[in-house]
Structure formats: structure tokens, C-alpha cells
Amino acid sequence: MQRVAILGSTGSIGTNALNVLANFPKEFVLCAISANSNIGLLLEQVDRFSPDSVCVVDTKKAKEFKRRLKKRGIKFYEGKDGLLRMCEEISIDILVVGIVGSEALLPILKAIPKIKRLALANKEALVMAGDIIMRQAMANKVRILPVDSEHSAIFQCLEFKDNLEIRNIYITGSGGPLRCISMRKFKDIRPCQAVHHPKWKMGKKISVDSATMMNKGLEVIEAHHLFGVDIERIKVLIHPETIVHSMVEFVDGSILAQIGPCDMRMPLQYALTYPSRFPPSFKGIDPGRFKELHFYKPDFKKFPCLEFAYSAARRGGTYPCVLNASNEVAVSAFLKDKIRFTEIPKAIEKVLGMHRPIPEPRLEDIIETDRWARLKTLEFLKLSID
Q: Span 182-188, mean pLDDT?
């Protein structure tokens, strides 16, 4: 019986992970969960799964949660420091990370020495500090299983293959909600349009990243760290049907692709049950219903965030950290209707151009660079700190 902890249990990844766990009560036990502020759903999860430990990161909500918590014997943590203590103190076999954004970095690093497997749905932590995370995982013999559908697909195609045999990795993407909208209309795009993804039900931040195609750029950097393949061999393809979740081309010209439904439970289940494959509770797809599959090269002019991500990846050092931090601030401002959609790439480009990189950053360098990039992005956008 594997002890599973889920960070971000009330989000899209967390709720889907709990759905998977519920189908395999003899294989997994939920030992810990965390949420930021959705204490209503968190209480429901506590009642249903009875974890040993629970953390509420929002300190105001934590007090309310503690007052409403009826079950005794559950160890309670609160705040960001409490989340780090929970990761360090409890016994975990598999850690599922569904936290969005840079907030996942420190919990991941705190947990790695204590766990056997990391089921990683957060891409920002690897973008910020991929070299540090991968070194820590290797030193502690922790297996990282990607939960992103694209990286899970690549992992499955690459299993037991030598990296020298790889010619190219192709990360597929739907093209997002703005694929068929003229670039001239981008300045009038509202948050409600940007978060309306045509294929996946995701959180607001990642949905906006899909609209700008920054999401694919972050995935390129993530794949570089996860699979040890240089940036020039990692390419993005627009695939509107989202049936092929990614592909790997080998030096002999053959291409392996992973095909599946648009359901996050599939990569989550594989990350939890690896190397076994268990029957799912969700429906697969019928290949006989495939009519056409289309693949297009992305338009870098229309979606400049993708080009910024490639550029930051090639430069390395602290550039990817700046890219991620600036993007998070700009996307947050857009979602609050403080800036236009077109100001997101402008802010990122400006802050990247101001950056003086550190080639081989330590963790403290990453944290300071992240802080600097956020402040500079706010300055450029003429916004105050919330």
C-alpha cells in the first residue's frame, strides 16, 4: 500500500488525482492533502478520505478551517511554512504536486529527500530551477513521473530508450482558445475568452498560458530537464484534435506517438501506478472514429511568448526563472482586468531584456531573481504590489 500526498488537492489536478485514488483503495492510502483557500471542498475531501495530515496555506482561511474541522486525530498545518513542515515531517511514498506556479518550488525541494516518487503536474518549478530539482532527485533516487499529458506521453514513448537515439521530441498542443482568432483582435481579448479552452478544463492561469502559447514554451523547458534533450531537438506542433498527446522521432526515422482521451486522469493514473497499467474508471477513445489528424507549425509572430521561452531556454542560467516570474505577474494582472492581453508578452520581453543573468544559479539566486523579475514586471506595467 503506497502512501500518497497531494499538494493542491482542491484544484483540477488534485480532484482528478483523488478520483483515481478512490478507484484503487487496496493500492493507495491518502496520507496528506493541502489547499490554498478552498476550505469547503477541502473539508469534503477530509470527510471522504480521512488523511492523516492537512494543510491550509491561506492563514485567514486556515483559522476558519480549523474551527470547522470536526474530525479529530488529523494533524493540521497552516501557512507556507506549515506546508514545508508537512512535506518534511510526514511519511510519503508518492507526492502529487498540483500546486500552480512558482509556489511549488520550495515544497518540492523540501519533500524530495523524504519520498520515493514525484508525480509532477507543476511545470513552473522545473522552469525556474530544473537543474537543482533534477540533481536533488538523482541524489535521493527519486523517480519523477510527469503528469502533464504531453510529458507523460513523451515519457511513455521514451521508456528504456537511449537519448542518443532521439532525433526530435514533438510536443503537441491544441493551439488554445485564440488559434482561429485574428492577431488584430488580441488587444480586445477579455479574461473570460482567454480561459475558455476548447479541449481541456483547467485552472485560469494555465488557460491564459495556453491562450498566449506560453504554456507550450514552459513545456519545452520542462521537457529539456525531464528528458535531458537539448532545446533544439524539442519542437512544438499545433494539433487541434488533441488526440496525439506528443511524439518522439528517432534517428532511424520512426516516430512513436501516445494517443488518448483529453482526460487528466489518464496521465495521473499512470504516474501513480507505474510501471503497472490498471483498468481505468474513465472511457478511452475509439480509433475507428478518427476522421482526420492535423499538425501545424506554430505562428511565432502571433504568439511571441513561445519564442521568448525558446530564447530563455537557449540562454539558460536565470533567464527561464525571469521568464516564468514575469509571466506569472502579467497573467495575474490580466485576469484581474488591470492590463490588456497584448501587454503580457510586452512585459515579459521588456523584463527579459533588462536581466543580467547568473549562469549557474544556486537556490538563493533563483529566489532573488524571481523576486527581482516580479518587481520589474510590476514597474513596467505601472502596477503596485498586491
A: 94
Q: Is the pLDDT at 288 greater than 90, yes or no?
A: no
- For the chain, where are the alpha helices, taking DSSP H only? 12-22, 39-49, 59-68, 79-89, 105-111, 124-139, 149-158, 191-194, 204-212, 214-227, 265-273, 304-315, 319-335, 343-354, 363-380
Q: Indicate if the pLDDT at residue 108 is higher than 90.
A: yes
- The C-alpha R_g of the chain, in whole angstroms, comes to 20
Nearest to 215 by CA among 223, 203, 207: 207
- Residue 70: what are its φ and ψ, rounded to 5°? -95, -30
pTM listed for this prediction: 0.95
Mean pLDDT of the chain: 95
Q: Is the pLDDT of residue 170 over 90?
A: yes
Question: How far is the first Cα of the chain from the last one, in angstroms, to the nearest whole number?
Answer: 44
For residue 290, the model assigns a pLDDT of 87
What gap in Å lies between CA 100 and CA 268, rounded to an integer?
Answer: 16
Question: Where does residue 268 rank: exposed (0-12), middle (13-18), buried (19+ CB within 10 A)?
Answer: buried
Distance of CA 205 to the CA centre of its chain: 10
What residue type is assigned to position 336 of the chain? K
Element (H, E) at 78: strand 75-78
What's the CA gap between 209 and 341, in Å, rounded? 11
- pLDDT for position 386: 66
Distance CA 81, CA 92 (A): 18
Handedness of CA 99, 100, 105, 106 (dihedral sign): negative
Q: Pull the grid cell for residue 88.
A: 518534511
**For residues 348 and 329, is the Cβ–Cβ distance under 8 A?**
no
pLDDT in tens, 323-336: 999 999 999 999 99
Which DSSP state fits 167? E
pLDDT in tens, 356-372: 999 999 999 999 999 99
Helix (H) or strand (E) holding 145: strand 143-146
Length of the chain: 386
What residue ranges define each of the domains in the chain, with the CATH number in brackets? Answer: 2-146 (3.40.50.720), 151-315 (no CATH)
